[in-house]
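Thread amino acids onto this structure.
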Protein backbone atom coordinates (compact mmCIF):
# COMPACT_ATOMS: atom_id res chain seq x y z
CA UNK A 1 0.00 0.00 0.00
CA UNK A 2 1.41 3.40 -1.01
CA UNK A 3 0.33 6.82 0.20
CA UNK A 4 1.43 10.08 -1.42
CA UNK A 5 1.06 13.63 -0.11
CA UNK A 6 2.75 16.44 -1.98
CA UNK A 7 6.32 15.35 -2.51
CA UNK A 8 6.23 12.70 0.25
CA UNK A 9 5.53 9.03 -0.50
CA UNK A 10 5.39 6.19 1.98
CA UNK A 11 4.90 2.47 1.23
CA UNK A 12 4.06 -0.33 3.66
CA UNK A 13 3.18 -3.99 3.26
CA UNK A 14 0.22 -5.68 4.94
CA UNK A 15 -0.74 -9.37 4.88
CA UNK A 16 -4.16 -11.01 4.63
CA UNK A 17 -5.23 -14.53 5.58
CA UNK A 18 -8.15 -15.78 3.48
CA UNK A 19 -10.30 -18.48 5.09
CA UNK A 20 -13.45 -20.22 3.80
CA UNK A 21 -16.79 -18.72 4.77
CA UNK A 22 -19.63 -20.58 6.45
CA UNK A 23 -17.50 -23.18 8.21
CA UNK A 24 -17.01 -25.22 5.07
CA UNK A 25 -13.91 -27.16 4.10
CA UNK A 26 -10.85 -25.57 2.57
CA UNK A 27 -7.23 -24.62 3.23
CA UNK A 28 -5.67 -21.66 5.04
CA UNK A 29 -2.26 -20.31 6.00
CA UNK A 30 -1.50 -20.20 9.73
CA UNK A 31 1.99 -18.68 9.73
CA UNK A 32 2.03 -14.88 10.04
CA UNK A 33 4.58 -13.18 7.77
CA UNK A 34 6.30 -16.41 6.75
CA UNK A 35 8.65 -14.43 4.48
CA UNK A 36 9.55 -11.85 7.17
CA UNK A 37 8.62 -9.11 4.70
CA UNK A 38 6.64 -7.15 7.29
CA UNK A 39 9.72 -6.54 9.44
CA UNK A 40 10.41 -2.81 9.39
CA UNK A 41 14.18 -3.28 9.75
CA UNK A 42 16.74 -5.92 10.65
CA UNK A 43 16.17 -7.09 14.20
CA UNK A 44 14.74 -9.89 16.32
CA UNK A 45 11.06 -9.52 15.64
CA UNK A 46 8.54 -9.36 12.85
CA UNK A 47 4.76 -9.73 12.99
CA UNK A 48 4.18 -13.10 14.68
CA UNK A 49 7.89 -13.88 15.13
CA UNK A 50 10.19 -13.62 18.14
CA UNK A 51 13.94 -14.10 17.87
CA UNK A 52 16.25 -14.92 20.77
CA UNK A 53 19.87 -14.62 19.63
CA UNK A 54 23.14 -15.58 21.26
CA UNK A 55 25.28 -13.57 21.62
CA UNK A 56 22.79 -10.85 22.54
CA UNK A 57 22.37 -8.13 19.98
CA UNK A 58 22.69 -10.19 16.82
CA UNK A 59 19.86 -9.68 14.33
CA UNK A 60 18.08 -12.94 13.46
CA UNK A 61 15.67 -11.30 11.01
CA UNK A 62 17.48 -9.61 8.16
CA UNK A 63 15.72 -6.90 6.17
CA UNK A 64 17.32 -5.93 2.88
CA UNK A 65 20.20 -8.39 3.20
CA UNK A 66 21.97 -10.21 0.40
CA UNK A 67 20.50 -13.69 0.75
CA UNK A 68 16.68 -13.83 0.62
CA UNK A 69 14.89 -16.73 -1.05
CA UNK A 70 12.24 -14.30 -2.23
CA UNK A 71 11.37 -10.71 -1.46
CA UNK A 72 13.80 -8.63 0.59
CA UNK A 73 13.87 -10.32 4.00
CA UNK A 74 14.81 -13.64 5.59
CA UNK A 75 15.87 -15.13 8.95
CA UNK A 76 19.51 -15.98 9.60
CA UNK A 77 20.43 -18.25 12.53
CA UNK A 78 23.88 -19.45 13.54
CA UNK A 79 26.85 -17.84 11.86
CA UNK A 80 28.89 -17.71 15.06
CA UNK A 81 30.63 -20.15 17.40
CA UNK A 82 29.25 -21.72 20.58
CA UNK A 83 25.92 -20.17 19.77
CA UNK A 84 22.21 -20.92 20.26
CA UNK A 85 19.57 -19.01 18.29
CA UNK A 86 15.79 -19.43 18.64
CA UNK A 87 13.19 -18.17 16.20
CA UNK A 88 9.59 -18.84 17.30
CA UNK A 89 5.97 -18.26 16.39
CA UNK A 90 2.93 -19.42 18.38
CA UNK A 91 -0.11 -20.62 16.47
CA UNK A 92 -3.26 -22.71 16.91
CA UNK A 93 -4.05 -25.67 14.65
CA UNK A 94 -7.85 -26.04 14.33
CA UNK A 95 -9.43 -29.07 15.97
CA UNK A 96 -11.25 -29.91 12.73
CA UNK A 97 -8.06 -29.91 10.65
CA UNK A 98 -7.81 -32.75 8.15
CA UNK A 99 -4.30 -31.77 6.97
CA UNK A 100 -1.55 -29.56 8.41
CA UNK A 101 1.63 -29.28 6.34
CA UNK A 102 4.67 -27.21 7.39
CA UNK A 103 7.15 -26.15 4.68
CA UNK A 104 10.04 -23.70 4.50
CA UNK A 105 13.09 -22.88 2.38
CA UNK A 106 16.60 -22.95 3.80
CA UNK A 107 20.07 -21.98 2.67
CA UNK A 108 22.87 -23.56 4.71
CA UNK A 109 26.42 -22.20 4.32
CA UNK A 110 29.30 -23.63 6.37
CA UNK A 111 33.03 -23.47 7.00
CA UNK A 112 32.97 -26.96 8.51
CA UNK A 113 34.72 -29.79 6.68
CA UNK A 114 32.55 -32.53 5.12
CA UNK A 115 31.88 -35.74 7.01
CA UNK A 116 30.85 -34.73 10.55
CA UNK A 117 27.80 -32.85 11.82
CA UNK A 118 28.97 -30.11 14.21
CA UNK A 119 26.29 -27.43 13.82
CA UNK A 120 22.54 -28.07 13.80
CA UNK A 121 19.19 -26.55 12.91
CA UNK A 122 16.25 -28.27 14.66
CA UNK A 123 12.64 -27.65 13.67
CA UNK A 124 10.71 -28.16 16.92
CA UNK A 125 7.07 -28.07 17.98
CA UNK A 126 6.61 -26.98 21.59
CA UNK A 127 3.32 -28.05 23.20
CA UNK A 128 3.13 -27.22 26.89
CA UNK A 129 6.22 -28.68 28.54
CA UNK A 130 6.89 -31.06 25.63
CA UNK A 131 9.26 -30.25 22.77
CA UNK A 132 9.06 -32.50 19.70
CA UNK A 133 11.83 -32.31 17.11
CA UNK A 134 10.26 -32.83 13.67
CA UNK A 135 13.39 -32.24 11.53
CA UNK A 136 17.13 -31.85 12.09
CA UNK A 137 19.49 -30.28 9.55
CA UNK A 138 23.21 -29.72 9.97
CA UNK A 139 26.35 -28.42 8.28
CA UNK A 140 26.25 -31.65 6.27
CA UNK A 141 23.23 -30.20 4.42
CA UNK A 142 25.25 -27.15 3.33
CA UNK A 143 24.65 -25.74 -0.13
CA UNK A 144 27.90 -23.73 -0.13
CA UNK A 145 31.32 -23.94 1.50
CA UNK A 146 31.76 -20.16 1.88
CA UNK A 147 29.71 -17.23 3.04
CA UNK A 148 27.94 -16.67 -0.25
CA UNK A 149 24.34 -16.90 -1.30
CA UNK A 150 24.56 -20.62 -1.99
CA UNK A 151 21.35 -22.38 -2.99
CA UNK A 152 18.02 -22.50 -1.17
CA UNK A 153 16.29 -25.88 -0.95
CA UNK A 154 12.96 -26.94 0.49
CA UNK A 155 13.01 -29.95 2.86
CA UNK A 156 10.13 -32.40 2.69
CA UNK A 157 6.85 -31.14 4.13
CA UNK A 158 6.40 -31.81 7.85
CA UNK A 159 3.03 -33.26 8.90
CA UNK A 160 1.65 -31.50 11.99
CA UNK A 161 -1.86 -33.00 11.96
CA UNK A 162 -1.20 -34.77 15.27
CA UNK A 163 -1.21 -31.31 16.93
CA UNK A 164 -4.71 -30.37 15.75
CA UNK A 165 -6.80 -28.66 18.41
CA UNK A 166 -3.66 -27.40 20.19
CA UNK A 167 -1.92 -24.06 20.54
CA UNK A 168 1.76 -24.79 19.87
CA UNK A 169 4.99 -22.90 19.28
CA UNK A 170 6.89 -23.42 16.04
CA UNK A 171 10.58 -23.18 16.90
CA UNK A 172 13.67 -23.00 14.69
CA UNK A 173 16.66 -23.72 16.94
CA UNK A 174 20.25 -23.33 15.68
CA UNK A 175 23.22 -24.55 17.73
CA UNK A 176 26.87 -24.26 16.74
CA UNK A 177 30.05 -25.68 18.22
CA UNK A 178 33.21 -23.85 19.37
CA UNK A 179 34.88 -23.38 15.97
CA UNK A 180 34.08 -22.80 12.30
CA UNK A 181 30.75 -21.20 11.49
CA UNK A 182 27.55 -22.37 9.82
CA UNK A 183 24.78 -20.04 8.68
CA UNK A 184 21.22 -21.43 8.64
CA UNK A 185 19.03 -19.10 6.59
CA UNK A 186 15.25 -19.66 6.66
CA UNK A 187 12.64 -18.04 4.44
CA UNK A 188 9.07 -18.41 3.20
CA UNK A 189 7.78 -20.48 6.12
CA UNK A 190 4.26 -21.84 5.54
CA UNK A 191 1.80 -23.95 7.50
CA UNK A 192 -1.07 -24.85 5.21
CA UNK A 193 -4.08 -26.28 7.04
CA UNK A 194 -7.13 -27.91 5.50
CA UNK A 195 -10.24 -28.19 7.66
CA UNK A 196 -13.17 -30.57 7.49
CA UNK A 197 -16.57 -29.52 6.26
CA UNK A 198 -18.96 -27.95 8.77
CA UNK A 199 -22.04 -29.72 10.06
CA UNK A 200 -20.30 -33.07 10.45
CA UNK A 201 -22.42 -35.64 12.27
CA UNK A 202 -20.05 -38.58 12.07
CA UNK A 203 -19.04 -39.77 15.52
CA UNK A 204 -15.35 -40.43 16.21
CA UNK A 205 -14.23 -44.04 16.08
CA UNK A 206 -12.52 -45.45 19.15
CA UNK A 207 -11.31 -48.84 20.30
CA UNK A 208 -9.52 -50.55 23.17
CA UNK A 209 -6.12 -51.61 21.85
CA UNK A 210 -4.99 -53.33 25.07
CA UNK A 211 -5.65 -55.66 26.77
CA UNK A 212 -7.01 -58.16 24.26
CA UNK A 213 -10.64 -59.25 24.45
CA UNK A 214 -11.22 -62.27 26.71
CA UNK A 215 -7.67 -62.01 28.08
CA UNK A 216 -6.68 -63.19 31.54
CA UNK A 217 -4.49 -60.53 33.12
CA UNK A 218 -2.72 -59.93 36.42
CA UNK A 219 -0.61 -57.34 38.20
CA UNK A 220 -0.73 -53.80 36.85
CA UNK A 221 -2.96 -53.66 33.78
CA UNK A 222 -2.31 -50.86 31.30
CA UNK A 223 -5.57 -50.16 29.48
CA UNK A 224 -4.93 -48.30 26.20
CA UNK A 225 -7.58 -46.75 23.96
CA UNK A 226 -7.14 -44.96 20.64
CA UNK A 227 -9.47 -42.80 18.57
CA UNK A 228 -9.54 -41.15 15.16
CA UNK A 229 -11.92 -38.82 13.36
CA UNK A 230 -11.59 -36.39 10.48
CA UNK A 231 -13.08 -33.49 12.44
CA UNK A 232 -10.88 -33.82 15.50
CA UNK A 233 -11.25 -35.59 18.83
CA UNK A 234 -11.84 -33.16 21.68
CA UNK A 235 -12.06 -35.67 24.55
CA UNK A 236 -11.46 -39.36 25.26
CA UNK A 237 -12.64 -41.47 28.20
CA UNK A 238 -12.01 -44.98 29.55
CA UNK A 239 -14.70 -46.85 31.49
CA UNK A 240 -14.24 -50.03 33.55
CA UNK A 241 -17.38 -51.91 34.59
CA UNK A 242 -19.38 -48.86 33.50
CA UNK A 243 -17.51 -46.42 35.74
CA UNK A 244 -15.43 -43.54 34.31
CA UNK A 245 -11.76 -44.08 35.20
CA UNK A 246 -9.84 -41.42 33.22
CA UNK A 247 -10.27 -38.81 30.49
CA UNK A 248 -8.13 -36.48 28.39
CA UNK A 249 -8.82 -33.60 26.02
CA UNK A 250 -7.52 -33.09 22.48
CA UNK A 251 -5.85 -36.50 22.40
CA UNK A 252 -6.28 -39.55 20.19
CA UNK A 253 -4.81 -42.00 22.70
CA UNK A 254 -5.44 -42.60 26.37
CA UNK A 255 -3.95 -44.99 28.94
CA UNK A 256 -5.17 -46.00 32.39
CA UNK A 257 -3.02 -48.09 34.75
CA UNK A 258 -5.26 -50.53 36.60
CA UNK A 259 -3.21 -51.82 39.52
CA UNK A 260 -3.65 -54.85 41.76
CA UNK A 261 -5.47 -52.77 44.37
CA UNK A 262 -8.23 -51.56 42.04
CA UNK A 263 -8.32 -54.58 39.71
CA UNK A 264 -10.37 -57.04 41.73
CA UNK A 265 -10.10 -60.68 40.77
CA UNK A 266 -12.80 -61.82 38.39
CA UNK A 267 -14.42 -60.65 35.16
CA UNK A 268 -14.50 -56.99 34.11
CA UNK A 269 -15.61 -54.93 31.12
CA UNK A 270 -13.66 -52.08 29.48
CA UNK A 271 -14.98 -49.50 27.01
CA UNK A 272 -13.77 -46.17 25.64
CA UNK A 273 -15.57 -43.09 24.35
CA UNK A 274 -14.40 -40.32 22.02
CA UNK A 275 -16.04 -36.93 21.48
CA UNK A 276 -15.58 -34.36 18.72
CA UNK A 277 -16.16 -30.62 18.71
CA UNK A 278 -19.77 -31.10 17.61
CA UNK A 279 -20.32 -33.38 20.64
CA UNK A 280 -20.72 -36.44 18.46
CA UNK A 281 -19.65 -39.39 20.60
CA UNK A 282 -18.31 -42.77 19.55
CA UNK A 283 -18.20 -45.78 21.89
CA UNK A 284 -15.86 -48.72 21.44
CA UNK A 285 -16.73 -52.39 21.38
CA UNK A 286 -16.64 -53.79 24.91
CA UNK A 287 -13.49 -55.68 25.88
CA UNK A 288 -13.93 -58.40 28.52
CA UNK A 289 -11.00 -59.33 30.75
CA UNK A 290 -10.52 -61.70 33.65
CA UNK A 291 -8.22 -60.50 36.41
CA UNK A 292 -6.19 -63.23 38.09
CA UNK A 293 -3.95 -62.01 40.89
CA UNK A 294 -3.70 -65.35 42.72
CA UNK A 295 -5.92 -66.87 45.41
CA UNK A 296 -9.67 -67.32 45.10
CA UNK A 297 -11.46 -65.40 42.41
CA UNK A 298 -14.87 -65.07 40.80
CA UNK A 299 -14.90 -65.05 36.99
CA UNK A 300 -18.48 -64.18 35.98
CA UNK A 301 -18.95 -60.55 34.97
CA UNK A 302 -22.12 -58.63 35.81
CA UNK A 303 -23.20 -61.67 37.85
CA UNK A 304 -26.51 -60.21 39.08
CA UNK A 305 -27.40 -58.39 35.82
CA UNK A 306 -27.35 -55.10 37.77
CA UNK A 307 -25.90 -53.19 34.80
CA UNK A 308 -29.45 -53.26 33.43
CA UNK A 309 -31.10 -54.18 30.15
CA UNK A 310 -29.16 -51.70 28.01
CA UNK A 311 -25.72 -52.85 29.18
CA UNK A 312 -25.88 -56.61 29.61
CA UNK A 313 -22.18 -57.19 28.79
CA UNK A 314 -20.39 -59.47 29.23
CA UNK A 315 -23.65 -61.42 28.94
CA UNK A 316 -25.26 -61.83 25.55
CA UNK A 317 -29.00 -62.45 25.79
CA UNK A 318 -32.10 -62.67 23.67
CA UNK A 319 -34.31 -59.58 23.70
CA UNK A 320 -36.14 -58.73 26.92
CA UNK A 321 -34.49 -61.38 29.09
CA UNK A 322 -32.71 -58.99 31.48
CA UNK A 323 -35.63 -57.58 33.43
CA UNK A 324 -36.45 -55.42 36.47
CA UNK A 325 -40.25 -55.80 36.52
CA UNK A 326 -42.08 -56.94 39.62
CA UNK A 327 -43.79 -59.82 37.83
CA UNK A 328 -40.91 -62.03 38.96
CA UNK A 329 -38.71 -60.86 41.81
CA UNK A 330 -34.92 -60.77 41.63
CA UNK A 331 -32.98 -62.97 44.04
CA UNK A 332 -31.09 -59.83 45.12
CA UNK A 333 -30.84 -56.31 43.82
CA UNK A 334 -33.21 -55.10 41.10
CA UNK A 335 -32.36 -57.05 37.95
CA UNK A 336 -32.46 -60.71 36.97
CA UNK A 337 -32.66 -62.83 33.81
CA UNK A 338 -36.21 -64.03 33.07
CA UNK A 339 -36.26 -66.69 30.36
CA UNK A 340 -39.53 -67.75 28.68
CA UNK A 341 -42.86 -67.18 30.47
CA UNK A 342 -44.85 -66.44 27.29
CA UNK A 343 -47.22 -69.43 27.18
CA UNK A 344 -46.46 -69.96 23.49
CA UNK A 345 -43.72 -71.57 21.45
CA UNK A 346 -40.65 -69.60 22.44
CA UNK A 347 -36.93 -69.86 23.19
CA UNK A 348 -34.62 -67.60 25.23
CA UNK A 349 -30.94 -67.86 26.08
CA UNK A 350 -28.15 -66.14 27.98
CA UNK A 351 -24.44 -66.72 27.39
CA UNK A 352 -21.15 -65.47 28.80
CA UNK A 353 -17.64 -66.37 27.64
CA UNK A 354 -15.17 -67.10 30.43
CA UNK A 355 -11.54 -68.25 30.50
CA UNK A 356 -10.68 -70.56 33.39
CA UNK A 357 -6.97 -70.29 34.25
CA UNK A 358 -4.97 -73.47 33.79
CA UNK A 359 -3.39 -73.04 37.23
CA UNK A 360 -6.57 -73.45 39.29
CA UNK A 361 -7.35 -76.58 41.26
CA UNK A 362 -11.11 -76.02 41.68
CA UNK A 363 -13.76 -74.29 39.56
CA UNK A 364 -17.40 -74.15 40.66
CA UNK A 365 -20.33 -72.62 38.76
CA UNK A 366 -23.29 -71.50 40.89
CA UNK A 367 -26.50 -69.53 40.34
CA UNK A 368 -29.93 -69.09 41.88
CA UNK A 369 -32.99 -70.43 40.05
CA UNK A 370 -36.73 -69.88 40.46
CA UNK A 371 -39.25 -71.74 38.28
CA UNK A 372 -42.86 -70.58 38.05
CA UNK A 373 -45.28 -72.46 35.78
CA UNK A 374 -48.91 -72.61 34.68
CA UNK A 375 -48.50 -76.23 33.59
CA UNK A 376 -50.61 -78.66 35.70
CA UNK A 377 -49.05 -81.94 34.73
CA UNK A 378 -47.00 -83.89 37.26
CA UNK A 379 -45.49 -86.24 34.69
CA UNK A 380 -44.61 -84.37 31.45
CA UNK A 381 -41.78 -81.89 30.95
CA UNK A 382 -43.30 -79.54 28.38
CA UNK A 383 -41.00 -76.55 29.03
CA UNK A 384 -37.26 -76.88 29.76
CA UNK A 385 -34.16 -74.96 30.82
CA UNK A 386 -30.79 -76.45 29.87
CA UNK A 387 -27.54 -75.43 31.59
CA UNK A 388 -24.68 -76.08 29.17
CA UNK A 389 -20.96 -75.62 28.79
CA UNK A 390 -19.97 -74.83 25.21
CA UNK A 391 -16.60 -74.15 23.63
CA UNK A 392 -15.65 -70.71 22.36
CA UNK A 393 -17.13 -71.58 18.98
CA UNK A 394 -20.53 -72.50 20.46
CA UNK A 395 -20.31 -76.31 20.27
CA UNK A 396 -21.90 -78.07 23.25
CA UNK A 397 -19.29 -79.72 25.49
CA UNK A 398 -21.66 -80.78 28.25
CA UNK A 399 -25.24 -80.28 29.50
CA UNK A 400 -24.81 -79.83 33.24
CA UNK A 401 -28.53 -80.00 34.06
CA UNK A 402 -32.00 -79.83 32.52
CA UNK A 403 -34.86 -78.26 34.50
CA UNK A 404 -38.50 -78.16 33.49
CA UNK A 405 -42.00 -77.23 34.58
CA UNK A 406 -41.79 -80.31 36.84
CA UNK A 407 -39.02 -78.54 38.80
CA UNK A 408 -41.18 -75.59 39.85
CA UNK A 409 -40.44 -74.04 43.23
CA UNK A 410 -41.94 -71.29 45.37
CA UNK A 411 -38.66 -69.43 45.89
CA UNK A 412 -35.09 -69.45 44.67
CA UNK A 413 -32.79 -72.45 45.00
CA UNK A 414 -29.04 -72.32 44.44
CA UNK A 415 -27.58 -74.67 41.84
CA UNK A 416 -23.90 -75.73 41.86
CA UNK A 417 -21.70 -77.51 39.31
CA UNK A 418 -18.05 -78.58 39.22
CA UNK A 419 -16.48 -77.20 36.02
CA UNK A 420 -12.83 -77.81 36.91
CA UNK A 421 -12.62 -80.17 33.91
CA UNK A 422 -12.50 -77.02 31.75
CA UNK A 423 -9.52 -75.29 33.38
CA UNK A 424 -7.15 -73.80 30.85
CA UNK A 425 -10.04 -73.40 28.37
CA UNK A 426 -12.19 -70.54 27.13
CA UNK A 427 -15.79 -71.69 27.52
CA UNK A 428 -19.32 -70.38 27.21
CA UNK A 429 -21.70 -70.64 30.14
CA UNK A 430 -24.89 -71.12 28.15
CA UNK A 431 -28.50 -71.33 29.46
CA UNK A 432 -31.33 -71.95 27.01
CA UNK A 433 -35.03 -72.02 27.88
CA UNK A 434 -37.74 -73.48 25.63
CA UNK A 435 -41.56 -73.40 25.90
CA UNK A 436 -44.19 -75.33 23.99
CA UNK A 437 -47.33 -73.85 22.47
CA UNK A 438 -49.40 -73.39 25.63
CA UNK A 439 -49.22 -72.63 29.36
CA UNK A 440 -46.25 -70.57 30.45
CA UNK A 441 -43.19 -71.58 32.41
CA UNK A 442 -40.83 -68.88 33.66
CA UNK A 443 -37.19 -69.74 34.38
CA UNK A 444 -35.74 -66.88 36.47
CA UNK A 445 -31.99 -66.89 37.22
CA UNK A 446 -29.83 -64.49 39.23
CA UNK A 447 -26.54 -64.05 41.11
CA UNK A 448 -24.16 -66.23 39.12
CA UNK A 449 -20.65 -67.05 40.22
CA UNK A 450 -17.78 -69.06 38.80
CA UNK A 451 -15.43 -69.39 41.77
CA UNK A 452 -11.96 -70.73 41.14
CA UNK A 453 -9.13 -71.46 43.57
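Threaded sequence (453 positions):
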Amino acid sequence: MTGTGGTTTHTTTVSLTVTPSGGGGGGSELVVDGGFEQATASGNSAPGWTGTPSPTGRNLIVKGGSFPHAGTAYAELGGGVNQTDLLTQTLTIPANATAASLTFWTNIVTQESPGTAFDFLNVNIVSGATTTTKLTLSNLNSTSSSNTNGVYFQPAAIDLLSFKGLTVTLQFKATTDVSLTTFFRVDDVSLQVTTGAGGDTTAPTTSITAPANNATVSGTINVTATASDNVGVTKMEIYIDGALKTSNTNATSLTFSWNTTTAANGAHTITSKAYDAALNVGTSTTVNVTVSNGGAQQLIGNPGFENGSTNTAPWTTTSGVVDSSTGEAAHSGTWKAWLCGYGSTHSDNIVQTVTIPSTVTTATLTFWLHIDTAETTTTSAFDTLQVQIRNSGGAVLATLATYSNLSKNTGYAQKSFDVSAYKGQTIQVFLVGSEDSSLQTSFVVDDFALNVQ
